[in-house]
Specification:
The protein contains 20 helices and 35 strands. With 858 residues, it is of the alpha+beta class. The structure holds 2-acetamido-2-deoxy-beta-D-glucopyranose (NAG) (2 copies). It is found in: Endoplasmic reticulum membrane.
């Protein structure tokens, strides 16, 4: 294979930034552009502080020879002493090095993703997919280095083209998967002003042995414009649709295009990679109106620069439309773009065919296009409908709620991505920042526009839904996540793998410190999956997974049980709180997942966090179950920890406040803390006053005291949410009473995160950070509440009736509100406002909010 020549970096100009891009994105992009002309740098490992100093001792020794004989003896003596000290340093350096290297060393256990487990040969069904959830529509295959396909479009209105490509909230589009089974097919509706665009795809993985075929069909329509009205027609909007293929350098393959119509219309792409073998792509446009075709073949240095590359190669034409400039005549071309410009309605079919599937395709009646495509699509849709009805249907009350369930599930599955790259990780202990080993992640994502990457604690919740629809996909996702564990048992919290993922993350959130944990929700997903994995007739893959799962989870568990332990036995403390962040009213606890949920105002080692204790109890319970299932000798150890952590005497001793009659965190706390703007510094004569006033900082009006941290909210519910409390417990009765109290957490839309009686309710944490977990309704916590209430409703005891009633009331409240907001806005939202129920912040948020689908039925 010839080596690729990086393209001319001059192509990427600052003024080519997309209009809607945020400052951060622009900064990130510019930084990356600056690096764009070189090959990918090798993973860097750099230590802050320290540095080699051995040479200096050596020089000192030789220096002695050049001195006078009398002083030479003395100097040699000193030099000898230095040598000993140097040796001590060396030993320390080596041990530190060894400790440092643990940061990026995988745990030495068999991996859960089998060797080549995602290859076309071993896993053809999941090989190709819409695994670029960050795009409105894009496909890739599950390989570290994949051929990439994607859609772009823009309105031809004589202005600078506003190209749609990555999902951006600022585009203000509606887009949603109407159907997606995570494997075979999908159909998405996009609404961009008067354009209605449908993106459909169908796969045929068994055509040949290289991952098979797929076809994408893009259909466009006008809505709200009367196309038969001649006058209207004149002004009718014109749409350009572009579909591209990019072969990143790392694939070491090649692409070539074939055009017709005086070289303007791209008809076919042919190519080859080691993994895909020979393949070809056919473009089949269909339109009855006037149409203009253009294309582009050029070189794009990286996958996060596709749009910039395309924008740089556009030009106006005499008919007033903007189109691509054709062949760029670069020595190496790895990006091919098809463009058609017309007035909707029109259609484009893009078919990817593996040459290895020639005979299979003939036997199957030819290419996946036209009628064949429609037939295959309907076949998969019918199966999907049946599966939905079977798995969720019994339960769903009416057509509208079944539409909701279908949409929530489809968008969860359509949000699954495949990522590859290295996290940037940091060890505060050894002061090391380094690249993690390059790794793959198959994972759902919280939000296609805002968080299109893997988040550790979100993923446990995602898989509560995915696991009920397709346990095999869920198993595969869990396997990928747990394989990211290092030798210390740590898994980085936020996974920013690859250029596309990185481009969406502000710099300050990129580095992942290895001291920080995140709620171990994967245990919840495993607990739910366990009956499937241990069923009669479970396959070899399931058995092997289960066998390898236990030691891995035990390592993960041990990481939590040691590094997140509190000062006293059986207590726990989230790490990563920083009291030096003086602009924060309450130092954040990002690792808990509940970011700004109020904790002790003064972080100390004495602090103990109730939610973490309960997560650990749950993890112990699940470990005991798996250990028992696989006949592990030490499962009783976990069972003992579960019993000791859940014991009411234990919970009461460390977390129950008699005075407030609730469970709380414990720590050094003052209720009288506020943000205040400091006096501006005294100016020297002639010195101009500062442009902006100094930022507000934290002031403590009453000195903190050790004690329970008041403020009733989600954390206080955890002994119930994680089912620690015995069904007969009076504490459970008290929690149920408080939970149902509208003055505390109960609202008509679900449980709010913090009681209005808390001093922190709906308070900003800094001047610029609005409240996050300080009142708003979150669906993951509400889902846990409903299922915990159902659990207590199933246990004999004095609270059985109350739990049953509350479970049903809460289920209805949450489900109805999430569905109502979905109905009126077209989206699931990150959170819901507690006074109005309105969806707010990030959207679409088809991560854990989609758990509402599991609340459709009583
Ligand atoms: C599947 O269900 C959807 C929604 O109810 C319906 O519109 C569609 O026609 C069904 N498709 C098939 C093939 O049954
Ligand atoms: C967890 O840590 C505690 C010490 O805080 C220990 O007593 C317990 O045995 C540990 N549990 C397991 C299962 O390792």
């Amino acid at each position: 294979q010839e080596l690729r020549n990086p393209s001319d970096p001059g192509e990427y100009k600052q003024d080519k930034m997309p209009k809607g891009a945020s400052q951060n994105q622009i900064r990130n992009r510019l930084k990356q552009n600056a690096n764009a002309d070189g090959p990918r740098p090798p993973p860097q490992r750099f230590r802050r502080g320290g540095g080699g100093s051995g040479n200096r001792w050596w020089n000192a020794y030789h220096l002695a020879d050049r001195l006078t004989p009398s002083s030479a003896t003395l100097t040699k003596l000193f030099a000898g002493l230095f040598a000993v000290i140097a040796l001590i340093f060396l030993v320390r350096f080596v041990t530190l090095k060894a400790r440092t290297a643990r940061l990026w060393t995988p745990v030495p256990l068999p991996t859960l993703v089998p060797q080549n487990g995602t290859s076309a040969e071993l896993s053809p069904d999941l090989f190709w997919g819409t695994y670029r959830p960050q795009l409105y529509f894009g496909l890739k295959h599950r390989s570290p280095h994949s051929l990439l396909a994607g859609l772009m479009w823009f309105r031809q209105d004589g202005l600078e083209p506003q190209i749609r490509h990555w999902c951006e909230q600022s585009d203000r589009l509606r887009y949603s998967w109407d159907a997606h089974d995570g494997r075979n097919f999908g159909s998405q509706s996009i609404r961009d002003e008067e354009f209605a665009i449908t993106t459909e795809f169908v796969k045929r993985p068994k055509m040949g042995g290289k991952g098979g075929d797929w076809t994408a069909r893009i259909s466009t329509k006008l809505v709200g414009v009367n196309a038969s009205d001649a006058k209207q027609r004149q002004r009718s909007p014109i749409l350009s649709v572009m579909f591209y293929f990019l072969l990143p350098d790392s694939t070491l393959g090649h692409l070539r295009g074939q055009t017709v119509d005086e070289q303007f219309r791209l008809e076919r792409i042919q190519g080859h990679t080691k993994e895909l073998g020979e393949f070809q792509v056919n473009f089949r446009p269909r339109t009855s109106g006037p149409v203009r075709y253009t294309h582009l073949s050029t070189y794009a240095p990286r996958e996060d620069l596709i749009k910039e590359t395309v924008m740089h190669r556009m030009t106006g034409s005499p008919d007033g439309t903007i189109g691509l400039t054709g062949r760029s005549n670069m020595k190496i071309e790895n990006l091919f773009v098809f463009q058609m410009t017309s007035m909707p309605e029109f259609q484009l079919e893009v078919s990817f065919e593996s040459v290895s599937g020639l005979s299979d395709r003939q036997a199957a009646g030819g290419s996946l296009q036209g009628e064949t495509f429609s037939r295959e699509f309907s076949r998969h849709e019918a199966a999907f409908n049946r599966s939905l009805a079977q798995k969720f249907g019994a339960t769903v009350a009416n057509e509208k709620s079944s539409g909701f369930v279908r949409s929530a599930l489809s968008n969860m599955l359509g949000g699954i991505g495949y990522f590859y790259g290295s996290s940037i990780v940091n060890s505060p202990e050894t002061e090391t920042t380094a690249a993690y080993w390059p790794a793959a992640l198959f994972s759902a994502t919280p939000s296609r526009s805002f968080f299109p990457r893997g988040f550790l604690w979100d993923e446990g919740f995602h898989n509560l839904l995915i696991g009920q629809f397709d346990p095999e996909i869920s198993r595969d996702i869990l396997a990928h996540w747990l394989d990211l564990m290092n030798v210390n048992g740590w898994i980085p919290r936020e996974q920013i793998l690859g250029f596309e993922a990185k481009a969406k993350v502000p710099d300050e959130f990129v580095v992942q410190p290895d001291t920080n944990a995140n709620p171990p929700t994967l245990f919840l997903a495993v607990e739910q999956l366990l009956p499937y994995l241990t069923r009669d007739g479970a396959g070899k893959a399931d058995k092997e997974f289960l066998r390898r799962l236990y030691p891995r989870l035990a390592t993960w568990y041990a990481f939590f049980n040691t590094t997140q332990a509190g000062l006293l036995p059986g207590t726990y403390r989230w790490r990563g709180r920083d009291s030096n962040k003086v602009h924060q009213l309450n130092p954040l606890t990002l690792s808990s997942g509940l970011d700004d949920y109020p904790r002790a105002s003064h972080p100390t080692d004495e602090e103990r966090h109730l939610d973490l204790l309960c997560w650990m109890a749950m993890a112990s319970r699940v470990m005991a179950q798996i250990g028992f299932a696989v006949d592990a000798p030490d499962w009783r150890k976990f069972s003992a920890t579960w019993e000791s952590l859940r014991a009411e005497s234990h919970l009461d001793k460390y977390h129950w406040s008699e005075q407030l009659a609730s469970y709380y965190d414990y720590g050094l706390h003052s209720e009288r803390v506020r943000l205040e703007r400091p006096q501006p510094p005294k100016l020297k004569p002639g010195q101009p006053p500062p442009q902006t006033p100094p930022k507000k900082i934290r002031r403590v009006d009453v000195e903190p005291r050790l004690g329970h941290v008041p403020g009733f909210g989600y954390v206080s519910l955890f002994p119930m949410l994680m089912r620690l409390l015995q069904p007969g417990s009076p504490r459970l009765g008290k929690i149920l009473t408080d939970l149902a109290d509208p003055k505390l957490l109960w609202t008509a839309y679900g449980l709010r995160s913090l009681s209005p009686q808390s001093s922190m309710y709906n308070r900003h944490n800094t001047e610029d950070d609005p409240p996050y977990w300080r009142g708003a309704i979150w669906i993951n916590a509400n889902y846990l509440a409903v299922t915990a209430l159902r659990h207590y409703a199933s246990q004999p005891g004095p609270h059985r009736e109350t739990a049953a009633q509350l479970a049903e009331r809460l289920r209805t409240a949450v489900f109805n509100n999430v569905m109502k907001e979905w109905d009126s806005t077209g989206f699931l939202w990150e959170q819901y406002e507690d006074r109005t129920g309105r969806g707010q912040r990030t959207h679409p948020f088809c991560g854990w909010t989609a758990l509402a689908a599991l609340l459709a039925a009583a």
